[in-house]
Amino acid sequence: MNRTDMAQDAMTQDVDAATRPQLATSGEILHVRDLSVQIADKTVLNDVTLDIGANERVGLIGASGSGKSMLVKAITGLLPRAARVDGDITMGGTQLQAGDDAAFAALRGRYVGLVFQNPGAALNPVLSVEQQVGLPLRLHYDLDAGERRDRVMTMLERVGLPASLAGSYPHELSGGQQQRAGIATALITSPRLIIADEPTTALDAIVQRSIIDLLVSLVESAGASMLFITHDFAVLSRATTRCMVIDRGRIIETGDTTALLRDPREPQTRSLVNAAKTLTLNVNPEHHHA
Amino acid sequence: MRYLIRRLIWFAVALLGLSLLVFAALRILPGDVASVMAGTNATPARIAAIRSRMGLDRSYPQQYADWLGGLLHGNMGVSAISGRTVASQIGAHAAVTLPLIVLSLLVALGVGIPMGCQAVLAGSPRVRSVLHTIAIVGGAVPALWGGLLLIMLFGRGVGLIGILPSQGFPDAGWHAPRAALISLILPTITTGLVAGAGIMRYTRACLISMEDSDAVAMAMACGMTRRQAMLRVGLRLSAAQLVSVAGLTFAQMITGVMVVESLFNLPGLGAMLINDVGNRDLIAVQSELFLLAAFFLLLGLLVDLMHHALDPRLGEQTQHAGGEGSTHDLGIR
Amino acid sequence: MTSVSDDGKRSKRFGRGGHTTGNVPLRMRFGVIIRSMWHQSVGRFALIVMACWIAVSLLSLFWTPYPLLYTDGGHAWAAPSAAHPLGTDGVGADVLSWLMAGSRTNLVIALLTMLVSAVIGLACTAVMISGRRALASAGVVVVDALIAIPTVLLALLFAVPFGTSISVIVAACGMTYGLNMARIVKPSASLAARSAYVEAARAMGGERVARVFSPISCPRLSPVLAVQLSMSAGTSILAEAGLTYLGVGVPSGVPSWGHTLTTSVRLISVYPLTVLWPGLTVTLVVTALYLLGDTIRDCADPLANVELRKLAAAVGRQTHNTGADA
């Protein structure tokens, strides 16, 4: 069963996105209704509702501590155990119960791929690049070693990592190479949804651009959808079509990316946009950590 | 490789320093070995004869050089009291103590690591806090008392469920393997559980520090459940630290091992050392202490090398430079 | 039986840093920390046990049920009775009186061990993070090597020339735990060495020694030190019991918990339950010491303790208004 899924995914990977059947139904990929999360009596997400359709690339912006990362964690079931979750999450046709770790795990790495903010910390330091990128395949598909290796090598080529680095460990790679390995890991199983949580903040400005371009082009050619969290508004307008603004755990504004950036309605969005404009001009990773 | 060489050189230096320390500490002692050896009513001439035979009339540097030279040739001297060679004495007693240590460590790891994992991964918060309490209280139990309680519970003749021997080691030693092993059960459980509580605490602490780490999140993002990710990635990434902690626990367990040997009346290294120290048997104590301490230095070396092998990031670095503020520094390298 | 740090959260908190309460007077900080410890059940348990320990130690200086030297020759190895709640030992001395008097010996041992291990630990830390690379790496290697030597071997080594005495226990424990502490404190200390606090201390000049020690006097280190020192204290009590039983701890005739435990081992054939009390005392006190360190760390951490942050803010405003500068 899994094997055939895989084969199909692999085939659709190469099909041009435009020729895929356009399913207009929103929420086909990800469907979130009234999602609230409390951690230690503190509400970190409050009645969040969002849908991501096929082939859609959605941006998510918000100040530090606004709940962006919490939203990503809630969608993928990565919240700490102490969290109390209410609301509905439907992904890949499965309605997910909060706390049903096995159900989330079955989707993670197969239906939804994650790109982390800091690949240096996220990549397993004791796995080689090849082992790391091949991990989702090992966990979800029953392939023999040679077949898995072939797929990994193809993927490495697509993300622009030379085959000679396949045996290297993360600490031997540059920041940009690490994030390429991270992207390869997220995309190796051709998931329908990619969630990228500020994937470039840990990188320097020149590398940032090439990573974003890589990610967008890969997602586009795979015909997947994407939830993109970023501070960089230039990236936002280039990489996403729709955009949501989150503030203190609520989605306060949502709309077409270019329109929203040009003419923000909510005061919080306006200050965010103004701050980000200056940031975008002289991108400095240090600021994002503040 | 460079790390290995560096570490080996320092190991040799440390051994040399250790031998000096032991030698010097034993020379400030007020008692006179020769008169102890000769007995209470010996003539001064006899004492002088013994002194010259043992080389105690020579200068300190000369004595030190003689001792060190002997050690290098495997000659550890002759006990002033028993007249047996120190080497044979150590060998006989180590046959009891080494198995006891190894078995205790196995119990400690076998109990401590799974329970420590469970103290983090158990679904119910109540179970987790009960396990945490067990870890803390377990580590606060004096080995002497733990051993006594076990004797009162299981000791043959005295215990409530008197099924296990609590005194002595078979005279035939390991020629009677069954009896020998059975006589080590209660001592092993005593030291193993006390040390296991320590291992359990560190396992728990390591895993908790991994709980919201990016590496575990990444493993989960690839499709592992939380439990899988914690055990396969979290525990693996803590392995280097756990090895260090196990090494230290092992070294500190020795007080407990000696107590337990005495409590259960086992003829181990502890009994030998205590006896020789009590008798001020200079030559024996000098070689025994040095050899035991050297054993632990070697152990420390092995632990450090293993620590390095388990963490590829330390590969060619000579010092653990990074890691500050990262989840990878529980303070134990 | 080790005294390595076992807290998973510490290093992380240090990594974040930022909030320090260095400018708050120590006495005010202390009050807030004690108060917030009292509000946790674990902290309250630890504080109560500590208070009882100190109270019994002081009491035993003036009063014990029987004088320590009183022996009831007719009632050697007596089972517990109304007159002797924990029975008597081989010379007919009252076990309860000796257990009470043992509190003060163990209190002294614990305090001295803390002191010695702190001095050794901080000195080693200062060497390991010193600016001279050769000195620093030699320090690291020496600590790495010596840390493997068990307390009991050191105690035996010292016991040969010096005989049995409290100072042998303190020296052996202080050395092993001090080395342990050095290893654990080092990461935070080298982090602190680059912090603004130390920069400021350096800029003010000062003596050479003070400059070497300025990183380790940083208030950021106090939570780690609290955990380590209370671990040292707790482990020293366990070590005392073991060493005394082995005959290389406190000399006979000096009351200590190890002494009482050893006595009760002999009493076991007369009245087995006697052995419960000294063992429970030791376990209780050591548990309390371990927990004490943990709660001090949690309560002294401005990131975790809201009260402490409020205090810092209040004092900060005050000093700002008066123009005073710490």
- Strand percentage of chain B lies at under 5%
| Integer-rounded radius of gyration of chain A | 18 Å
Q: Looking at the structure, what is the overall shape of chain A?
A: globular
| CATH domain fold name of the domain at 92-292 in chain B | MetI-like fold
CATH topology of chain A: Rossmann fold
Number of domains of chain A: 1
**Percentage of β-strand residues of chain A:** 15-25%
Keywords for this entry:
heterotrimer; B: 333 residues; mainly alpha; MetI-like fold; 0% strand; disordered C terminus; C: 326 residues; 13 helices; flat
Helix/strand layout:
The complex is a heterotrimer of chains A (about 290), B (about 325) and C (about 325).
Chain A: H1 2-14, E1 30-39, E2 42-52, E3 57-61, H2 68-76, E4 84-91, E5 94-96, H3 101-107, E6 112-115, H4 119-122, H5 129-140, H6 145-158, H7 175-187, E7 193-197, H8 205-222, E8 225-229, H9 233-239, E9 242-247, E10 250-256, H10 257-262, H11 267-281, H12 285-289
Parallel strand pairs in A: 3-8, 3-9, 6-7, 7-8
Antiparallel strand pairs in A: 1-2, 1-4, 4-5, 9-10
Chain B: H1 2-27, H2 33-38, H3 44-54, H4 60-72, H5 86-121, H6 125-139, H7 143-154, H8 177-183, H9 185-211, H10 214-221, H11 226-263, H12 269-278, H13 282-310
Chain C: H1 10-16, H2 26-38, H3 41-62, H4 95-128, H5 133-146, H6 151-162, H7 166-193, H8 196-203, H9 208-213, H10 222-246, H11 257-267, H12 276-300, H13 306-322
Helix pairs in contact in C: 2-12, 3-4, 3-12, 4-5, 4-7, 4-10, 4-11, 5-7, 6-7, 7-10, 10-11, 10-12, 11-12
Model description:
The complex is a heterotrimer of chains A (290), B (333) and C (326). Chain A is α/β, with parallel strands linked by helices. Helices cover 42% and strands 22% of the residues of chain A. Residues 1-27 and 281-290 of chain A have low confidence and may be disordered. Chain B is an all-alpha fold. Chain B has a domain at 92-292: MetI-like (MetI-like fold), CATH 1.10.3720. The relative contact order of chain B is 0.14. Mean pLDDT of chain B is 81; it is low at 316-333. Chain A binds chain B through residues 76-78, 80-81, 101-102, 105-106, 108-110, 113-114, 116, 118, 121-126, 135-136, 139-140, 169, 171, 182, 185-186, and chain B through 211-215, 217-228, 233, 236-237, 310-313, 326.
